[in-house]
């Protein structure tokens, strides 16, 4: 049994789009050609990769999910071979697929991309944004090759880029405006939390300090948190790193207990990453590598 690489490419694109029409547009071939290639690929493997449901459309089978992960690994190997050959000829080409959460995209990536492009103008960068948990899953299933996430970093290879800590934000004329620090325990019923990757650090510290947590109001983005605090709905708890990416006029206070986390770039293995990905990690490290 030999795998047709064109069929593999079609399978990956259909799995990405979960729509035959969209996949055909992305591949610049007809929809019947996509369907034919997919059927031939399934026949070669002698497995069903998709369930074709009239109500839900295309759904990957369990073996289809495993095949997709392997297909992405094969694509990574192919990219690595091409990039190694280009590197040997002093010309790096290819694509780096990066996952990042919005604050990291704002604070870290622009300068890093500028530096990287000045050195490797022929490498394409594809950026996907989500929260830290989503990005870890994208790295896990190889949707992206490298990801910028907040700790914990689980089992991945990691380079620490920034040390970060949580702070409290409040509007002007708040009763705690004169206080140097905000106690999470004393103000636990008035806190607004942001779930944009902060929750692990916050919940772990509250548990360790045996501080009861009452989830009265939680939001998904820093912008929403700032807006809620501006409307005097409570005291916002957010990381300094994330807050620096949002425009605001709120009062910022340290918190008790202190809550810290790290920002890092992760991969399955930096040693096994494509040359382009390794060079991008190097560019990030030159600009932001924190003393660990």
From TrEMBL:
Signal peptide: none annotated. Residues 60-90 form a coiled coil. Pfam families: HTH_1, LysR_substrate. The keyword Transcription regulation applies. SUPFAM superfamilies: Periplasmic binding protein-like II, Winged helix' DNA-binding domain. InterPro entries: LysR_HTH_N, LysR_subst-bd, WH-like_DNA-bd_sf, WH_DNA-bd_sf. GO terms for molecular function: DNA-binding transcription factor activity; sequence-specific DNA binding. Residues 3-61 form the HTH lysR-type domain. Gene3D superfamilies: Periplasmic binding protein-like II, Winged helix-like DNA-binding domain superfamily/Winged helix DNA-binding domain. GO terms for biological process: positive regulation of gene expression. It comes from the Bacteria. Keywords: Coiled coil, DNA-binding, Transcription, Transcription regulation. Belongs to the LysR transcriptional regulatory family. This is LysR family transcriptional regulator. It comes from Paenibacillus polymyxa (Bacillus polymyxa).
